[in-house]
Amino acid sequence: MEKKLPESLQKLIKKVEEAFPEDPRMVQLFINCFTNTLDTTVKRLEDGTTYIITGDIPAMWLRDSVAQIRPYLMAAGEDKEIADMLVGLVRKQFFYVNLDPYANAFNQEANGNCWEHDETDMLPWIWERKYELDSLCYPIQLAYLVWKNTGRTDHFDETFVKGVRRILEVWRTEQHHEERSPYHFVRKNCYFTDTLSRGGKGALVKSGTGLIWSGFRPSDDSCVYGYLIPSNMFAVVVLGYLAEIANQVLGDEALAAEAEAFRMEVKEAIETLAVVKNEYYGRIYAYETDGYGQFLLMDDANVPSLLSMEYLGYDGDREVMENTRRFILSEGNPYYFKGKAAGGIGSPHVPPYYIWHIGLAVQGMTESSREEKLRILQLMRDTDGGTGMMHEGFHVDDPTKFTREWFSWANAVFCELVLDYCGVRVVR
C-alpha cells in the first residue's frame, strides 16, 4: 500500500495478527476490509465535513455511512485525524437532515443526480427520498458514539440541535401518519417494493399507537405494515442517547425530558403491540405491524433488524428477545436459508437462498460464546468468493455467486466482529 496507515489503525491490525497467528487468510481479509473504507469511500471536504459513498453507488446513505466507519471509532480516542473525520461526518449528516429529514441518501453537491425521478418532493442535493425511520436514528447514534469514544463535544453545535429537533418533529408527525404526514413517494415502472401504495401514502396504519411509521426498511424496500419494529427499537435507543446528550452536554433540561418521555412512550408501544404468541417459539417480537392487529413474522439481514436488538442496545423483555432470536435463526424465518456453504439470514431485497455477511457478523457479535464467534468468522472468511472482500448476499451453496462486489458496510461489520473477538469494542 502506498499510503501509510495511521499508527492507531496499525495497533488494531497488530491485535488481530496476535489473535490469529496461524490464520494468515483471516488477517489478510481483515486488513483488506479494514483499509477499504478509508481508501475508497471517505472524502474529506474543504469545509471540514466528511462525505462517504456506500461503495459501488456514488451517493451517501445516512445509514450506511455510519455503519461503514464503526471500526474506526475504536481508534479515534487516540487519533485526532480519525476523530476529525468522524466529527466531519456528523456535521455532514446533520446538514443533510436539516435539508430534508425524509430523504435517505444524498449527493456530495447540489447536482441533481438521483437514483430515479420519483414523484416526491426532491431537492438537487437528494439522491433518493425514501423515508426510513432508521436513517434518522443513525446520525444521533454516530454523534453519541463519537462523544463516548473520543470525548469530543464540538459536533453538538447549532446544526446538531436544529437537526435533532427536526427529527423529533418528523417522528411526532409520523406517529399520526394518516392524518398529519406530508410525505408521499411514488416510483413508476418498478417492482412493488420500490414504491408506496395508495398514491404514495403506504399501507394503512392505525394512528396514535405510540409507534413511529416508516415508509421503507433499511434494505430500502417498502414496508408491508408501516410500523417497522426493529427501527422503532433503534429509535428507543437513540432517544435515550439524546436525553443523555441534552442533560450532560447541552444543559437543556427541556430537551432531555422530552426525549426521555418519547423514549418511554415508544418502548411501551413496542412491548404492548409488537409482542405476539407463536405456537412453536412462544412470545416473540413481530418484524412489522399495522397497529390494527396484523403483523409480519420474519427478519431481514439489514440493520436495524430483530437480530441486532442487543447489538444496537435495545433492552426489551429478555424472554421475548431470546425466543425471537431462536425464531429468526431458524427456518421458521422465511429469510433464513441453509445450504452446502453456509446458513444465515438473507433479505427479500436479493434473490432467495442468498445470505448476507452483515447478518452473519451481527449474529456473531450478539453471541455470548467465543467459540461461536470464531465459527462465524471462519464462515465469513470462507465465503468471500475468492475476492478478499465481503459482499451483500452470497448463495448458500456457492459463495462465488454474490451480489455487490464492492459493499463497504459488509467489509466494516466483518472488521467489527474480528475486533469484537479480539476484545476491542465500540464504547457506548
From TrEMBL:
Q: Which domain of life is it from?
A: Bacteria
One GO biological process term: carbohydrate metabolic process
Give the residue range of the signal peptide.
Answer: none
Q: Which Pfam families match?
A: Glyco_hydro_125
- Name this polypeptide is given: Metal-independent alpha-mannosidase
Give the source species: Eisenbergiella tayi
